[in-house]
Amino acid sequence: MKIINKISDRNRENKYNIFINLFSPNANTKILDVGASELEYRQTSNYLEKKYPYPGNITVLGIDDYNEFCIRYPQVTVVKYDGEVFPFEDNKFDMCWCNAVIEHVGDRRKQEIFLNEIIRVSKCAFISTPNKHFIYEPHTKVLFLHFLPKNIFNSIVKLIGKPWAGGDYMHLLGERDIVNLLNKCNIDKYRIIKNKLLCFTIDFVIIINEPGLV
């Protein structure tokens, strides 16, 4: 487990570095972070808020109450919403950061709505999500379990004491799913970065309207 945690921590650091290098945010950049965590299980949780040098320019949007989050990050603006339409005007933010959230918003239809809202309120976006074809699923922490049919998966997570992981908790995506989703949202200015462990893709980073390439 220590090795897995170390890989996960390094992956979060790597994604943050990709974000900084590609988007080059500065002291005037307005960033929307969709789905930051109220509870922090690791030191690398809420990596953006921990590392970004201008936390006062970050707005967090999520469905949690964020009581502890506001204590930890008092400079960050927090907005709670109902999980549907983002409560912001068009192009409110220069960029959006969304780390491992889109797989939790619901089925493909809800993911499409979610993605459309991101590109509506943000001029460009950095979205990451686990690869559903990777052998290890980071939520259940059980090898191959997510490959099983949904009904069997739901039964097993109950048996191992993780019933929260079943039902509508997550709808993982592969590369083809991501491309289909982008096409449905009429997004054509994007690229997909594959974060790898050896030759296996752990997760994807979706870059939309990358500065300099638009």
TrEMBL record:
Pfam families in the cross-refs: Methyltransf_11
InterPro entries, A to Z: Methyltransf_11 (IPR013216), SAM-dependent_MTases_sf (IPR029063)
Domain of life, per lineage: Bacteria
Domain Methyltransferase type, chain residue ranges per copy: 58-123
Keyword Transferase: yes
Molecular function via GO: S-adenosylmethionine-dependent methyltransferase activity
Alphabetically ordered keywords of this record: Methyltransferase, Transferase
GO biological process terms on file: methylation
Keyword Transmembrane helix: no
Descriptive protein name: Class I SAM-dependent methyltransferase
Origin species: candidate division WS5 bacterium
